[in-house]
């Protein structure tokens, strides 16, 4: 078994690069078929989606734009009134079709918040493209339109995803070993 150590945890290779890229081929084909002629704006959520965004965009075969954003949280006076903001989105997105490019949908909280922020800016349509989806962890009512890979509810790293900041550079995906 192919295992690595990151900080205090051990991880075993669970999804090799080739399998990741094959799953992105499939999702890109669906997006190419569905969205040609809609002039979509892809919005990739940093940091985790940087590798997925790069490999996905190389496979999109129609004219489109991509923008990279970060979800930032500003602490309010109590823990319940933290203000969330999308940083880096400077263009007008009114009436645009948006494809959110995300690394992983786990509980769905992050995605729900991003969708609320985009809706408040008047977008015409929001679609979600995620590299990974943990169906057993989902706690929010979300329609995830494009899923490259469905995975069990275990912690993973690699291909953009991190454990305490490390592991994003790995070209394969690894699952934590209990
Ligand atoms: P959610 O808000 O619960 O859906 O979690 C989404 C965010 O949590 C992702 O954008 C990741 O940054 C992080 N995350 C969730 N599961 C994992 C994992 O297995 N490994 C690394 N990061 C994860
Ligand atoms: Mg993320």
Fold and architecture overview:
There is one protein chain. This protein is α/β, with parallel strands linked by helices and 178 residues long. Helix content is 21%, strand content 34%. It has one domain: Rossmann fold, CATH 3.40.50.2020. It starts with a strand and ends with a strand. The mean pLDDT is 95. Bound molecules: inosinic acid and magnesium ion. The site of magnesium ion (MG) has 3 residues, from loops. Inosinic acid binds next to β6, α3 and β9.
For the sheet with most strands, the description reads: 6 strands, mixed
Percentage beta strand:
25-35%
Give the termini distance in whole angstroms: 15 Å
Any low-confidence stretches, pLDDT <50, length ≥5? none
Mean pLDDT: 95
Quick one: how many beta strands? Answer: 10
Number of domains: 1
CATH T-level fold name: Rossmann fold
Going by helix content, strand content and strand pairing, the class is: alpha/beta
Element pattern in H and E: EEHEHEEEHEEEE
Helix content bin = 10-25%
- Using only C-alpha atoms, the radius of gyration works out to 17 Å
Reading off the top of the CATH hierarchy, the class is best stated as Alpha Beta
- Strand arrangement within the widest β-sheet reads 5-4-3-6-7-8
Tell the overall outline: globular
In the CATH hierarchy, the architecture is: 3-Layer(aba) Sandwich
Helix run count: 3
Bound molecules: inosinic acid, magnesium ion
């Amino acid at each position: 078994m192919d295992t690595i150590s990151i900080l205090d945890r051990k991880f075993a290779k669970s999804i090799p690069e080739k399998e990741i890229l094959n799953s992105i081929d499939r999702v890109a084909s669906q997006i190419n078929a569905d969205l040609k002629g809609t002039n979509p704006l892809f919005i990739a959520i940093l940091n985790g989606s940087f590798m997925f965004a790069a490999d996905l965009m190389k496979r999109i075969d129609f004219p489109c734009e991509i923008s990279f954003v970060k979800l930032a949280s500003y602490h309010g006076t109590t823990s319940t009134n933290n203000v969330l903001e999308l940083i880096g989105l400077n263009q007008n997105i009114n009436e645009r079709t948006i494809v959110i490019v995300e690394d992983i949908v786990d509980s769905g909280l992050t995605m729900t918040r991003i969708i609320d922020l985009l809706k408040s800016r008047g977008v015409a349509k929001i679609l979600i493209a995620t590299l990974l989806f943990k169906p057993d962890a989902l706690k929010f009512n979300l329609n995830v339109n494009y899923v490259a890979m469905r995975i069990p509810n275990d912690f993973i790293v690699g291909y953009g995803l991190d454990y305490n900041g490390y592991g994003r550079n790995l070209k394969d995906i690894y699952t934590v070993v209990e």
